[in-house]
Design brief:
The protein is mostly beta strands. The protein contains six helices and 24 strands. Strand 14 (about 155-160) and strand 15 form a beta hairpin. This is RNA ligase domain-containing protein.
């Protein structure tokens, strides 16, 4: 799971360009609109990022039952998240998410997912985590060569052929064969996955199964699509170019951009429509990573997601 915290920050108000009674507060790469009269520079606030779920308690009664925090547009500018007064005794930099009873929203899966785990093949198969660009975007340098792919709205899946059989897994567990669960259904509806895995035993293909949530990508009622986004070879992630060569025969997440890093341009890419054939809707977002794999002690593997404001503002 990517990092999701509710940190205490020190307020610095900036003018909203289109509203005299509103101000803008920047929190890393996030931007949040507030009523100017409610805050002054130096106040301590809790930043509650989008896709947080606030508890049903009096402190949040003003949300009128809409406890999932979204992106909203105020006077032509997106506001990402919510600012609340910091709890008594909290200090700048504290994570007060648990103290305030806030959780991270997890979309429900509409098909069978429970009671079907199994012990998987031996080896190390890391959970697939992508941190938020708004938190770690400073790790990229202007002009650094990067690759940007479309972030699809579905569920993580991984597949490997080992010891004479195909294995299917979710982000956290290997799954027993069951035609009702989405990971095996995705495998059977996309037979090229097993073909490729048999031709490359021991290599793990990571990707997204999709078409069954609120972004349909042109899928029919019982369709499950799959697109690969990474290959793991004996605990090592392959570089972008190498993965596409070895992964010939796989269907990949759409390539959005390959070239020098430019934050303004990259944020614009996140707001465009999906490149999946048949999709007639916005994209969920994008994933940015360097052309050559690298690690950073602050976030691990350097690859970051930007979730579209258009998507977050309309998400079910």
């Amino acid at each position: 799971m990517s990092t999701h915290t509710c940190d205490v920050i020190k307020i610095k108000l900036e003018p909203h360009p289109n509203a005299q009674n509103l101000s803008i507060v920047h929190i890393g790469g996030y931007e949040c609109a507030v009523r100017t009269a409610d805050w002054k520079d130096g106040d301590l606030a809790t930043f509650i990022p989008p896709e947080s779920v606030c508890p049903d308690i009096p402190d949040f009664a003003f949300l009128n039952g809409h406890f999932r925090i979204r992106v909203k547009k105020f006077r032509g500018r997106y506001s990402q998240g919510l600012l609340m007064p910091a709890p008594l005794g909290a200090k700048e930099g504290d994570d007060v998410m648990e103290q305030m009873g806030i959780t991270h929203y997890e979309p429900p899966l509409p098909m069978s997912t429970g009671g079907d785990n199994e012990i998987g093949p031996p080896g190390f198969f890391p959970k697939y985590d992508v941190e938020n660009f708004n938190r770690y975007g400073h790790l990229f340098e202007h002009g650094e060569e990067v690759v940007i792919t479309e972030k699809l709205h579905g569920s993580n899946a991984l597949y490997i052929f080992w010891n004479g059989r195909i294995w299917a897994g979710s982000r956290t567990n290997w799954k027993k064969e069951d035609e009702k669960n989405i990971w095996w259904k995705g495998l059977r509806q996309n037979p090229w996955i097993e073909t490729w895995c048999k031709d490359h035993p021991g290599l793990v293909v990571y990707g997204e199964i999709f078409g069954f949530q609120n972004l349909k990508y042109g899928a029919g009622q019982n369709d499950i699509f799959f697109r690969a986004f990474d290959i793991l070879n004996h605990m090592n992630w392959l570089n972008y170019s190498e993965s596409r060569i070895i992964g010939l025969g796989l269907e990949w997440v759409p390539l959005v951009y390959k070239g020098p890093f430019n934050e303004t341009l990259i944020r614009e890419f996140a707001e465009l429509d999906s490149l999946i054939p048949g999709a007639k809707h916005k994209r969920e977002g994008i994933v940015v990573k360097p052309i050559k794999e690298r690690q950073d002690p602050r976030c691990g593997r350097v690859q970051l997601k930007i979730v579209s404001n258009r998507y977050l503002a309309k998400a079910e």
